[in-house]
Design goal:
This protein is an alpha/beta fold. The protein folds into 2 domains: 214 residues, Aspartate Aminotransferase, domain 2; 136 residues, Aspartate Aminotransferase, domain 1 (Alpha-Beta Complex). It is built from 15 helices and 12 strands. β2, α5 and β3 form a beta-alpha-beta unit. Strands 1-7-6-5-4-2-3 form a 7-stranded mixed β-sheet, with helices on both faces. Strands 8-9-12-11-10 form a 5-stranded mixed β-sheet, covered by helices on one side.
Length: 389
């Protein structure tokens, strides 16, 4: 063998079957081969396990998918490049021209935009309501055959709690699939409900470090099989290095999520007592009108606290710029605390009635609480409130 050939075919080190690495390898690899063409064809037909091309499947990515599916109490998971990608590809996979989609004003702005604009270009119709309007939901489902109901709980950014049992029951009654964006609730909550598909932004809680982007769709049966086939064709597979960082990050997921939830409750309780604050939206507060429903549905209430400053948007700007421990940026679930000021809260495309449903006010501020000591966060907020005055 010439040296030019040797460097392209390095020897494989021996790997004893009884001597395994503790951590699963990162398969930074695009291609696999079988010893025979027939075995390759059997794998492609689904008659045997194996890998062929990383756009279709990769062992490192598959480890993450199986972990997330197990946590959500479902059969399978498909991962992709971002949370928005997971939403967009799921909507595209499950709808076609003349289908009807039901969605809600209280939720992630890109979901509204994808439903109205992207699907609308392909002849998919949509109806938008308030997540609290159960009468309207049933009327919409009874009046027009609906393919899909997509919703969130807690909602972004004002943490309303959807009555998941009611929404899924109505959807099943009228033959619609349900898709729940479960990003705020995390991977361990809401699996007990009859939701067809869960979508997650892995960018948030999977690593907690804000250093990797990704999305996931989790489910069982025909809906997840259909989504998986479509995802392969559209080619937005999560890369194996990102998947390995997420598997590593998930080892601390419960410690982070539960600690951040406890810190968020402490901050919310402090905010609720402040004269500058008109309203605190956090389902862990016993004063929240969603508390009883949240307690019935959830184990932990999450890290997002939204509140309204009485003095409005400019006061919110001053508070944001006076903070030192809160990073002024998007996202949530990071180990560091984050703030979104009123000027960045979104909902501008909503009409007055829809904006009322969204419950975003002139002085609304969204906090994502991290792992800092809550007393330090409260002291930072107190200094910023004083500076804003």
């Amino acid at each position: 063998m010439k040296d030019e050939t040797r460097v392209n075919h390095p020897p494989l080190p021996p790997q004893p079957s009884d001597n395994q690495s503790l951590l699963f390898p990162i398969y930074e690899n695009v291609k696999w081969e079988f010893e025979t063409v027939d075995e390759s064809l059997r794998m492609i037909r689904g008659e045997r396990e194996g890998y062929f091309y990383s756009r279709v499947a990769n062992p490192t990515v598959r480890q993450l998918e199986l972990l997330l599916a197990g946590l959500q109490r479902r059969e399978d998971c498909v991962t992709c490049a971002s949370g928005v990608n997971a939403i967009a590809q799921t909507l595209l996979a499950l709808t076609q021209t003349n289908d009807q989609v039901l969605h809600f004003a209280e939720g992630y702005a890109p979901t509204r935009q994808l439903t109205r604009n992207l699907l609308g270009r392909y002849g998919v119709r949509s109806t938008m309501l308030s997540i609290e309007d159960h009468v309207g939901i049933e009327r919409a489902l009874a009046g027009t055959p609906t393919k899909l109901v997509i919703f969130e709980s807690p909602t972004n950014p004002v943490t309303k709690i959807a009555d998941i049992a009611v929404i899924t029951r109505l959807a099943r009654q009228y033959g619609a699939l349900t898709v729940l964006d479960n990003t705020f609730a995390g991977f361990h909550q809401h699996g007990k409900f009859e939701v067809d598909l869960f979508v997650h932004s892995l960018t948030k809680f999977a690593t907690g470090a804000g250093d990797v982007m990704g999305g996931a769709v989790i489910g069982s049966g025909e809906p997840i099989r259909k989504v998986r086939a479509e995802f392969r064709a559209l080619g937005s597979q999560l890369d194996p290095h990102s998947a390995s960082l997420m598997v590593r990050g998930m080892k601390t997921y419960f410690v982070r999520y539960r600690t951040q939830s406890a810190h968020a409750l402490a901050v919310a309780e402090w905010l609720a007592a402040r004269p500058e604050v008109e309203n605190v939206r956090y389902p862990g507060l016993t004063s929240s009108r969603f508390h009883a429903l949240a307690r019935a549905q959830m184990q932990d209430f999450g890290c997002v606290v939204t509140f309204d400053l009485r003095a409005g948007a400019e006061a919110g700007r001053r508070v944001t710029e006076a903070l030192t421990l809160f990073a002024h940026t998007a996202s949530l679930g990071s180990t560091e605390s984050l703030i979104v000021p009123p000027q960045m809260m979104g909902g501008r495309e909503l009409n007055p009635e829809e904006r009322e449903w969204s419950d975003i006010r002139a002085g609304s501020i969204r906090l994502s609480i991290g792992l800092e000591d809550p007393h330090d966060l409260i002291a930072d907020l107190e200094r910023a409130f004083a500076a804003a005055r």
